[in-house]
Structure prediction request, 228 residues.
Amino acid sequence: GAGVSQSPSNKVTEKGKDVELRCDPISGHTALYWYRQRLGQGLEFLIYFQGNSAPDKSGLPSDRFSAERTGESVSTLTIQRTQQEDSAVYLCASSSSSTQTYGYGYTFGSGTRLTVV
Amino acid sequence: QKEVEQNSGPLSVPEGAIASLNCTYSDQGSQSFFWYRQYSGKSPELIMFIYSNGDKEDGRFTAQLNKASQYVSLLIRDSQPSDSATYLCAVNRYNFNKFYFGSGTKLNVKP
Prediction:
């Protein structure tokens, strides 16, 4: 696609429910990243996928968070048993192998705003 | 200590003035430095990156890097109301997989 697409754009869920967030990267971009941004805060790294390599999960805050990506296509971020502190905007970004070395190929999606009530 | 520190602001400047945004980082091994602009309710967009000590200019924007002081700044000349946004500083360490972001500085340019 022309840009990084995320869905849903907004999600309100009850505490304890599971949610699944989707990211469709730019076609041909091998690297995909998930970040979390709490209100008024900076971006918090969650997870990184690069092609078929093992993902870098070092930023996932707890075992309630998981993410998958098949090849160089869509990624899903799943949050189980949601808590109120999970409320944030979840941003996905992608980059191509030719530009990611210097970072300027980093393109963000518009994000999913998650509210846990 | 946070990886990347920024003054949250808001920084208010009159239209046409120079806006100076500052960022410090804790890891001496940091290699690349980025400035992103984020409008309210929108996703961040890259506006500048710098790797070497000194200044890098792109239009009205100048990035300045001082690795000895672990300091990076962004100057916006001839500030416009459309520059009003939150500016995020991001730092990349020894690998290129993760960027550490500051919490951002909110800039208001008053007409």
